[in-house]
Write a structure and sequence with these properties.
Elements: E1 8-11, H1 49-52, E2 60-63, H2 66-75, H3 77-83, H4 85-88, H5 103-111, H6 113-117
Antiparallel strand pairs: 1-2
C-alpha cells in the first residue's frame, strides 16, 4: 500500500461462516454452507471443483497488524498528545466526557494497577457498524 501500511489478505466464506485459515485452508467449499471459496463464472457449472479454483476468491478480509499502526501513532508528537489526553488534560468533574470516565475504564485501572499508571498504554474499543 502507498501509505506504508502492510496488510494481509485473508480469504473468507461469502456468507461470513469461516475464514480459510488453519484447519480450513485446504478446503474448496465452506463446510457450513457449502458455498465455493472462489468466484464461479456464469458459464461454469457450480459443481465443478476444477473450474472454481481457477478464479479469484469470492471474499477476502484485509488484516492490518496493530503494532505497526501503534508505532506510527507514537512517532508523531501531535498524536502522542491526543493519545495521552486522558491523563494530561482529564477533567475530574464527575461528568462522563469520554472513555476515561467510564466504568469499564475504571475497572481496568483497578484490576491492572501497573497498566493504569502508564499514560501511554492504549485501550481499544470495539465498534461495529451493524
Amino acid at each position: 500500500m502507498s501509505n506504508g501500511y502492510v496488510y494481509q489478505k485473508i480469504h473468507a466464506c461469502p456468507n461470513d461462516c469461516i475464514v480459510y485459515r488453519h484447519e480450513f485452508k485446504e478446503l474448496q467449499k465452506c463446510p457450513r454452507c457449502g458455498v465455493s471459496w472462489y468466484k464461479v463464472k456464469d458459464d461454469d457449472e457450480c459443481s465443478s471443483d476444477e473450474n472454481t479454483k481457477k478464479g479469484s476468491p469470492a471474499k477476502f478480509l484485509c488484516y492490518l497488524p496493530i503494532i505497526p499502526r501503534f508505532k506510527r501513532l507514537f512517532a508523531n508528537g501531535d498524536d502522542v498528545k491526543d493519545l495521552t489526553l486522558h491523563v494530561d488534560e482529564r477533567n475530574y468533574d464527575g461528568m462522563l466526557c469520554y472513555s476515561a470516565g467510564s466504568s469499564q475504564w475504571k475497572k481496568i485501572d483497578h484490576l491492572y494497577l501497573d497498566f493504569g499508571k502508564e499514560a501511554r498504554n492504549l485501550r481499544l474499543r470495539l465498534a461495529t457498524d451493524e
